[in-house]
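Hypothesis: this fold can be encoded by more than one sequence.
Test: take the structure tokens below, design a sequence, compare later.
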């Protein structure tokens, strides 16, 4: 049963990766590389909205994002092994308490929809912690995890970090 749910989570990644890719065709070769003899696209524009952060601010935010990805991996691994404590431990690292690691001066630079998606993701991790203790199967937890991942995919498709223009 857990294998089926883990497979279902992995299927969620497939269609969402298509949304997050740049619309410019790179080529028909392996791993997004052009086929032999085809020139690489010289200029690809990144039209995502810029969130202007300094380099140290970006380091802080990206560290948080990597932790959220590690939490996703930890939750799916815990579910696959039937280890409720591992699920709780992994999810608790990315709940609302994680926001305390991002200074207010950085959070205020985030556009409101960015903040809303981030908060929804952190809340979903907190709900995973709550649900994991009483869930009879992994379906409700996977649904919450899916909601969180959808926010991640949408946010990464819409926003990017760049140094502020002087």
């Amino acid at each position: 049963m857990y294998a089926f749910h883990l497979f279902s989570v992995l299927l969620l990644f497939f269609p969402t990766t298509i949304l997050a890719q740049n619309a410019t065709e790179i080529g028909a070769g392996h791993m997004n590389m052009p086929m032999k003899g085809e020139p690489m696209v010289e200029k690809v524009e990144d039209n995502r909205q810029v969130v202007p952060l300094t380099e140290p601010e970006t380091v802080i935010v990206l560290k948080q994002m990597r932790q959220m990805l590690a939490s996703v991996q930890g939750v799916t691994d815990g579910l696959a092994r039937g280890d409720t404590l591992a699920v709780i431990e992994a999810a608790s690292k990315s709940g609302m308490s994680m926001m305390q690691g991002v200074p207010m001066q950085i959070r205020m630079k985030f556009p409101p929809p960015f903040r809303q998606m981030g908060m929804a993701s952190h809340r979903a991790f907190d709900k995973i912690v709550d649900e994991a203790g009483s869930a009879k199967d992994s379906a409700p937890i996977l649904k919450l995890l899916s909601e969180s991942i959808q926010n991640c995919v949408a946010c990464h498709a819409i926003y990017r970090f760049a140094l502020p223009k002087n």
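Confidence is low (pLDDT under 50) at residues 6-27. The chain has one domain: 2-162.
Hypothesis status: open.
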